[in-house]
Amino acid sequence: MDDLLAEFLTETAENLEVIDTELVRFEADPEDTATLNTIFRLVHTIKGTCGFLGLPRLEAVAHAGETLLGRFRDKALAVTPEAVTLVLQSIDRIKAILVGLEAHGAEIPGDDNDIILFLQAAAEGKRSAPPTPAPSPALEADPVGPNGEKWDRDLQRFLRPGEVSLADLEAAFQANATEAPGAPAPVGAPPPPKPIKSDAAPELVGEADNNSKGGQAAAQTIRVSVDVLEELMNTVSELVLTRNQLLQMVRGLNESEFKAPLQRLSNITAELQDRVMKTRMQPVGAAWRRLPRIVRDICRETGKKIVLRLEGEATELDRQVLELIKDPLTHMIRNSADHGIEASDQRAAKGKPEVGEIRLAAHHEGGHIIMIVADDGAGLNIERIRQKAIDKGLVSTAEAAVLSDAEVQKFIFAPGFSTAAAVTNLSGRGVGMDVVKTNIELIGGSIELSSVFGQGTTFRIKIPLTLAIVSALILGVNGQRFAAPQTSVVELVRVGAGSEYKIDQINRTPVLRLREQLLPVVDLGETLRIAAPGEKAAMARYVAVMQVGATRFGVVVDEVHDTEEIVVKPLASMLRGVPMLSGATILGDGSVVVILDPNGLADALGRARETAQKAQDAITVTSGAHEGEQSLILFRAGGDAVKAAPLMLVTRLEDLPVETIERADGRAVLQYRGALMPVIHAAGDYAFKTQGCQPLLVFTHGESPFGLAVDEILDIVHERVALDLTADRPGVLGAAVIRGRATELMDIGHYLEIAQADWHDGRRARAPKGRVLLIEGSEFTRNLLRPLIVAAGYEVATAPGAKQAAALKDEAGQFDAVLADIDADPHAAAALARQIASDPSWQAPPCIALSGRHTQAAQFSDCVRKTDRAQVLAALDYAVRQRRDGQNEEAA
After folding, report:
1. pTM (2 decimals)?
2. What is the residue-wise DSSP string for 516-554?
3. Which residues of 667-711 form beta strands (DSSP E)?
């Protein structure tokens, strides 16, 4: 019976999460019979199992809820917000009973007539206000875990060792709150939702990109204990370590009979590791199930109208990471709904749609998951935050006056920081964003913020795909080795004797001048106190350039050994207080090394970060010599001539053994990140190397990468490019003088079409995301941006100026967005934007300014750097989506 009860608790908890989400969706569309049937079936299953296990309380509540749902299904009752609220409250009561059942192994006696009678009355068509949710006397005391863990009502789980409940934190801040006008709200369970008339009920839609409906046949699955998976993962981890040790043993041998079987063992181990990792992976949508219900309840309590859009629910990540990200996401969604989105009357007064939007999206990017939490609400009030930071003593008045908007916005992550005018049960106590940032950084992630006052706020969360096995770069200092997570390392730079780069001192603070950028640096040996300050200043050393969030910095080391997949182990107790260390691992030769924590190293920068930023700002202000420069990667392919490609189009540089490039259907392909990637050589098939390693430039269009093989990668340069000669030869834009040498500029769009011959056919089968007009006077920049935008799924027309743009509109029809350069002639660009907005024949497409030196542009909806690929595409996607949503609302 214990096994049956444990199975029942697990299955019922999963079903209740689904019911929560589906009820919110059903309330928005009462005609959706498929969703209603799914809800009814799940409630009926819970009721039937309760009867079999002898759980009368659960059975009675589930039966009353099932009766009301049955009346909905038979069309005998109209679906009202009050009735749906009753069903949701019955689900909450079932959850409360399940908590006691799990804690005590038996159903706790209690009286549920309050909710049952209301459900019965509603099923009979009698209208009444929902009951006040009050736990029965037997449930007033929170349950206690098997090891004495405390139950947290807000998080709906037992607290981890050393963790403080959200209610306790809120109570502490509330006790010291001085800005709240009146008595503070009670701490603990939230008050009952206020009844709202059905004709004034706020709208809420939970939309998922897969639009899956209930009732579909489930895939064949088997339930496996998490402990079994953890043990399996640990076993595979040990196998990986053993594989690494064996490979290390034969790496220095020229001839060995073990090389072939060890290579096979390595492949099998990698496949096994991949399969086991997949068993730990779960769709991120599992962490989002309760969010529509949370937003729906906030709507009813505040009277707001909010639509929650979910995108990328099928994106998978490690179960351990998924559990750790649930609570931060809940905080952020509650914050956006309560703080960010304005009331309907306020939105209408600003010319916004009455229904606010919160968008939660997830996608893979390299070895990370990127989550976007965005709202179209009020945005952050920069001046209010600035004044609040001064009042709280976080910054002086003089310092605050010179801070940029982005720096001021970061104050919302300070502990106890809040700009709310009043303390409510939802927000205003300064508890939340600092906890979110801390929790995300604890798992090696980062969070970035961008906000425009009056338009909305966007958070970009970057978290690792898994915490179990990671790729690491092995660094050496004073004979000791350290592992640095490879996902945080941007590049390696050699400094000192014999190198063009060196570490300078500004105000006695070390900085690295890297391609006209000043980076703060930290000496790893000095920071960990295993080297004396300044003793290696004259030596040739290395700088590992790392990035944490928006902060890029350098870590100075003596040696760079190799990259290796490592298994993360916890630190010994005596090292857990060192903030620069996050764990330990065993290398292939059996030695134990510690893993560096990039967040801790960033914190160790101290004033070096501020000094480097001020010096960089001074350089930017006093020197305009680098405006209009393009970042290019230089290489050779098929001869001694130097060729160049735009760096912004390159997603990765690889140097892979020639044996990894195979042939399929007469084409060169590479097994790359779980899929086949087409590879072509910039000089033709004959130029592929036959031994050693083949350098590759990896480009990506949409979700599909392709590799461009070259003979040798030379350098990355930043130059102002002017095409001196144009070329008729396919694949070449022309020639320019770069670094004193004639250099061919490659047309990457040409190679993209060759690499994926069926690309255009596939695009014709799919509707384009929109039609874009690109206005840019520089032929080079037009040819740089056009393949990038086409690869993102848009049809693109180009024009060198405003007159040609107007002619294109008359000839080719309407556009969904316009990208226009503002550097060459800002006044002409602004006049064109005004014409597009005022002339009805244009149909008011959003205009985005492209610039190399400006951050804002009047008359334009947005301004982005033309050399920032991610920013250009993000702004374009957002503008087109907003326009389409507005058109759909008008049509409705």
Report:
1. 0.47
2. TEEEEEEEHHHHTTSS-TTTTTTS-EEEEEEEETTEEEE
3. 667-672, 675-681, 693-701, 704-709
